[in-house]
Specification:
Elements (H helix, E strand, L loop, with lengths): L1 H17 L17 H4 L7 E2 L2 E2 L28 E6 L13 E7 L4 E6 L5 E7 L2 E6 L11 E6 L4 E4 L4 E6 L5 E7 L7 E2 H6 L7 H8 L3 H8 L7 E2 L2
Parallel strand pairs: 3-13
Antiparallel strand pairs: 1-2, 3-4, 4-11, 5-10, 5-12, 6-9, 6-11, 7-8, 7-10
Helix pairs in contact: 4-5
Length: 235
């Protein structure tokens, strides 16, 4: 396991050197983010990409460090998956640098459900297990179908999910699976489709969803009554 972890780390390090960031290029060595709770009390603070820069004289090595990503996340939830996100909120030194990371753990038949990252392309490498992955293109035009690109991945395989497109990962094996993902933003964001459509507060009008999905209103009522699980963990 340690060997596979080092392989993944090496691959992701290479990815970070070649990734084209979706965020503007920084104009200084770094802009370590100040915690949001402290941002309002700072005078003469500089805002960059939504985060305030810490005084460079106060920056510490810990601002560029995060421990424990070798430990699996809990998959004891209805989806059977756990995404441990490491972005600017976990490593403030990522601010303005245009990269972040996630570890994704899967129980047997666990699913990272259809979702999008509005601000980032994702590149995924599988360490353990077998994953069915895929993404769907944006609307191509009148009377044309969205196209699904899908692939079965084994350990060592890599797959790319273009920025903003709906994508998923499903463990179709009998054992646990582990993958790591690099994303081209320090704050990529995530929109889980089912959660957003059926679990929003306040809820989207049932008339709207009934028309959009062409189903009976009772189906929409049932879906809106469910608890839509968030499998993302932010340490």
């Amino acid at each position: 396991m340690a060997f596979r972890f080092h392989i993944a780390a090496a691959i992701l390090a290479l990815v970070f050197t070649i990734v084209y960031a979706s965020d503007p290029s920084p104009l200084q060595d770094f802009c370590v983010a100040v915690p949001d709770a402290n941002a309002g009390v700072l005078a003469n603070a500089v805002f960059v990409n939504g985060k305030i820069c810490k005084d460079p004289k106060l920056v510490k090595p810990e601002d560029f460090f995060f421990p424990g990503l070798n430990k699996p996340g809990s998959t004891a939830n209805p989806l059977g998956s756990n995404v441990t996100a490491v972005n600017v909120n976990q490593i403030p030194g990522l601010n303005t640098l245009g990269v972040s990371l996630a570890r994704i753990d899967f129980a047997p038949y666990g699913l990272n459900p259809p979702h999008t990252h509005p601000r980032a392309t994702e590149i995924l490498v599988v360490l353990e297990g077998t994953l069915l992955v895929g993404f769907v293109t944006s609307n191509p035009g009148m009377n044309m179908k969205n196209k699904l690109f899908t692939k079965v991945l084994n350990p060592g395989d890599v797959f790319v999910f273009p920025e903003g497109l709906i994508h998923f990962q499903f463990n179709q094996g009998h054992s646990n699976a582990v993958a790591f993902a690099a994303l081209s933003s320090q704050n990529p964001g995530v929109i889980t489709i089912a959660n957003a459509v059926f679990g929003s507060k306040p809820p989207i009008s049932r008339d709207v969803l009934t028309k959009a999905f062409q189903v009976d209103k009772n189906v929409v009522k049932y879906l809106q009554s469910q608890f839509w699980w968030d499998n993302h963990y932010y340490p």
